[in-house]
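Task 17 of the worksheet. Students: predict the tertiary structure of the chain below and write it out as structure tokens. Keep your answer in the requested format; marks are given for formatting as well as content.
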Amino acid sequence: MAGKDLSAPLGLGKRKYFNLPLGLIGASLLTVLVTTGLVWIGVVDDPLGGEPTATVPLERSLEGLSSRDFGVVEIRPSLPEGAQDPTAENAADQQALGPRFEPKPLSGADAPESRPDDGASAIANGLSVRADARVTEPGPHGPLPKVSDSGLRPLDVYARPASQSFASIPKIAIIVGGLGLSQTGTQTAIEELPPEITLAFAPYGGSLDRWMQRARRDGHELLLQLPMEPFDYPDNDPGPHTLLVSHNTREMGERLSWLLSRMTNYVGVMNYMGARFTTAEEPLEKLLTEITDRGLMFVDDGSSSRSLATATASGLRTPFSHSDLVIDDVPRPKDITARLLQLEGTARAQGVAVGIATALPVTVELLAQWSKDLDERGLQLIPVSASIDRTAR
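Model answer:
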């Protein structure tokens, strides 16, 4: 080995190894790791992936809905001290209306068209768009319904005729309530829903007479909603003219007179809330007696399983109907569709079924679609007045 070293050319007798700069290599690797981490955090949706998590199922989520699917009821703030409500005719009216509700006059595209009061505009689609003098009388707050001298009732005059060609066909009545509070919601419901669907107006809505005329021109039968005392009143307050179980005959008559005069051309009334009121036999009997004497029908919205309305109406021979189910208690498309299918099954089982809904955009849209081919499925859509035997009462 020593000989080879001595005879080998200078510099070639011994191999030399390259000395690597370990510090530079380490710094480079660290830089790559840090850069990769920053890119991961910026690009990946879950930078904390792998951390412990918990999932809670929400069975009543409103997934898939947007804000446009919900209607909004306008409630104004209290008026400044000493300010006058421009919608009240006098101080007494302003005090009775209360600070929570503001009927707003309509203008522009939201306002229903107004027509002159002549013979040509008095009837549309076979329905009157003006109050019939035979079944109307003046009241302290406006016109009130009454039975005519010949026994003609507002229920008879304002009811939408229902076809009786196929008496054996299962029938469905739909009531859409809460109209008059939202201008856009009211206009959409009137324009898009088929005329066989009954529309129920809230007494605190604005421009109710003009909305009534618009709805009647489009062929709709109408109800008036009456605010009634719930169990958690006054924490849950239906409004300043709520009918209470503590009212005596005079107080109830005064409030009922105001409520019934809010609009005309309706076939009857329907409770709004009222779980407590409809379980109190004496106040409910007073109310239904007045409703019967005025030639109207009463509709129980079915929200209270303890309601005595069915038995009380039967004893007083009040024209009566009740809702079998609430269509949009869960305002999701799939739930509304399921309730409509359930309503169809109820109609086939018992001959007539009544469903109630609110004027949410999602509800109105689905009802309009659902009703288009109802006859092809062997079902008939009827106004709510056709869900009672009017000739027998």
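Marker's comment: Residues 174 and 197 are 5 Å apart (CA to CA). The longest strand covers residues 171-179.
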